[in-house]
Write a structure and sequence with these properties.
Order of helices and strands: HHHH
Shape: elongated
Number of strands: 0
Strand content: under 5%
Helix content: 40-55%
């Protein structure tokens, strides 16, 4: 508020010694101290009252906002918003129950016969690759008939691997 440095205080003290007699100086300093204390208390009280009035104004504004929100609130809309997903699920369920059942594709299309599908000609493919993982049970596929061995070679005994390597590069594989 008032910025008084040490030099100003020294000037004031020298003027006070010259103007006032020395016997009245202690009483004068005590009175000045009391007046400064009262001024500080009054300034503090005014600041506290101002802050309190400001807080009360904020509280009144908050209360009026709360009052308006309570008056404008409709509990039925809140309940409707909460139950909206349940209502849509119920509507979907009702539509699915009342809708006519469409004919299945299996009934309208004829089932394929075994003669319609050609047998695979490549014997090197494993049977597991021909059926899907989650599909129907595996069906054995007919393999093409083996050609007779060339003249002058022995016919391999069943259960034993042939001694000569086959043309596809697999050795010792049993089917």
């Amino acid at each position: 508020m008032f910025e008084v440095g040490w030099t100003e205080i020294l000037v004031i003290a020298i003027v006070a010694l010259i103007v006032f007699p020395t016997k009245d100086l202690p009483r004068l300093l005590r009175t000045v101290g009391q007046l400064v204390g009262k001024a500080r208390r009054m300034a503090g009280d005014m600041q506290a009252q101002f802050n309190q009035a400001l807080r009360e104004a904020e509280r009144e504004a908050d209360l009026s906002d709360l009052k308006n929100s309570i008056q404008n609130a409709n509990p039925l809309t809140d309940i409707k918003k909460t139950l909206d997903p349940v209502r849509t699920f119920g509507d979907d369920l009702k539509k699915s129950v009342t809708a006519p059942i469409p004919p299945q594709a299996a009934e309208s299309a004829p089932a394929p016969t075994p003669t319609d599908t050609p047998a695979p000609t490549d014997a090197s493919l494993p049977a597991a690759a021909e059926t899907p993982v989650d599909g129907p049970a595996p069906v054995e596929v007919a393999r093409p008939a083996e050609t007779p061995p060339p003249a002058g070679t022995e016919k391999p005994v069943e259960g034993r691997a042939p001694e000569a390597s086959s043309s596809d590069g697999k050795e010792g594989s049993a089917a």
